Amino acid sequence: MVKGIINTAAEQAEQLKQDGNLYFKKNRLGAAIDAYTEAITLCPDVPVYWTNRALCHRKRNEWGRVEEDCMRAVRLDPKSVKGHYMLGLALLQRENYAEGIKALERALDLGRGAHPNSYMVEEIWQELASAKYKEWVHDSTKRNLALQKLEKSCEIALQEKLVHDLSHKTDGTDEVGYSTSEQLAALKLIFSKAAEADKPTDVPDYLCCKITLDIFRDPVITPSGLTYERAVILDHLEK
Length: 239
What we know:
It is built from nine helices and two strands; from the N terminus they run ααααααααββα. By secondary structure, the protein is mainly α. 23% of the residues are buried. It catalyses: S-ubiquitinyl-[E2 ubiquitin-conjugating enzyme]-L-cysteine + [acceptor protein]-L-lysine = [E2 ubiquitin-conjugating enzyme]-L-cysteine + N(6)-ubiquitinyl-[acceptor protein]-L-lysine.
């Protein structure tokens, strides 16, 4: 009797999932969320119900709920590509770049292992590349602001030292002023060189595939020692 109840609950949950999928295709997101929620209530340990509901929340830009559902999904199934993928997107929305990138990298690894040529792998790679660029912009901006603040503090300190030295000068020479000008010029040069590390540069040739001329995504090395994009060289060999 108990087994029959369990099977009935599972069947009802699966039917609710199918209903939710149909609502989602018709863009009836509220109805889809309700259907997936009922399925989750009946069978809370099925990860796809959580990721399906998260997808609805994603389309509504309800990123907090996306994160909650995907966290539950990846706990239930650590190999859920969609779970890690949408979790990464949700974390990036609140600028948690480190954890967001980690989740996207996990999704990419799982996707390549399961379906290397699927559209989702390409989509995840694009989002990961964008996330890493945003992280670099965020971190470089933060470093530049800190450098500018430090440079300003150093300039103020030198100017204050100049005022102090001039007030205690006994001869009529301008050596103090010349010395401070040289120090300010040197200071400006030092901070200018320090800021160069955060200036964007061209991608080196060794990081690009010789066939696609694009940045490597999944590079492989041939017996001859040359590096190519995996999908491109496999396609070439098959032909």
